[in-house]
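To illustrate the input format used throughout this study, we show a single complete record. The first block contains the structure-token representation of the backbone; no residue identities are included at this stage. The design step must infer an amino acid for every position from geometry alone.
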């Protein structure tokens, strides 16, 4: 069992930045992890992915603005979000793919005002 706890969300003006953190109860070394978001009335969608070999991937909607990274010494995954837009408003979740399962955190709210 892996517990994931997100933090760092909040209210920010358009054009601003936030850094989300996801603290894991197990090692983050060489496991695939991702950040997803879900806006009201919409499906949960991937916003950033880091593979077990640290290859990163982003959808076009956030490419160039969001950066996923991790600190294995702290067992923590990060999402740096710059140039935020109102359409980035959502609950952001991290996940981890390990032990043959997918684990999810409970999410952190990000609200971007125009």
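Output of the design step:
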């Amino acid at each position: 069992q892996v517990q994931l706890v997100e933090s760092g969300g909040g209210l920010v003006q358009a054009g601003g930045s936030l850094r989300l953190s996801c603290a894991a109860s197990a090692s983050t070394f060489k496991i695939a992890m991702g950040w997803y978001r879900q806006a009201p009335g919409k499906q949960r969608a991937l916003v950033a992915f880091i593979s077990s070999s640290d290859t990163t991937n982003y959808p076009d909607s956030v490419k160039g603005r969001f950066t996923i990274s991790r600190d294995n010494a702290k067992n923590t995954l990060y999402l740096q979000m710059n140039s935020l837009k109102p359409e980035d408003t959502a609950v952001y979740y991290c996940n981890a793919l390990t032990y043959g399962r997918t684990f999810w955190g409970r999410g952190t709210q990000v609200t971007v005002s125009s």
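Structural context for interpreting the output: The chain has a mean pLDDT of 97. The longest strand covers residues 90-98.
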